[in-house]
Write a structure and sequence with these properties.
Elements lengths: L1 H4 L1 H26 L6 H30 L17 H9 L1
């Protein structure tokens, strides 16, 4: 419910997190059925994960500020470090 009151956070999550999850689900379905996955998908997943993480963190920080009675507009969108290897991708995806 709280996300419906914060349109900037809702739009940020909708434009970054859900397209990323749809790509993860569709790629997983292809891999499970035995079809090959384009190497470009892997690069795209590594690019989209930090964006989705930053938008989700932004929305949660804004909600925490609102719950504490602080000004949620004071929260800035963080930039996260890009993912450079698949060894880094797994732990960040699980977190």
């Amino acid at each position: 419910m709280w996300l419906l009151r914060d349109l900037s956070a809702l739009i940020g999550i909708a434009w970054s997190f859900w397209p990323w999850m749809i790509m993860v689900i569709s790629s997983g379905r292809k891999a499970a059925s035995g079809r090959s996955i384009s190497p470009r998908i892997y690069d795209r997943l590594m690019q989209m994960l930090p964006i989705a993480e930053a938008k989700l963190r932004f929305a949660l920080h804004r909600q925490a500020c609102r719950a504490l009675g602080w000004n949620p507009r004071a929260i800035a969108l963080d930039t996260l470090d890009p993912i450079t290897s698949w060894a880094d991708f797994g732990p960040r995806f699980e977190a």
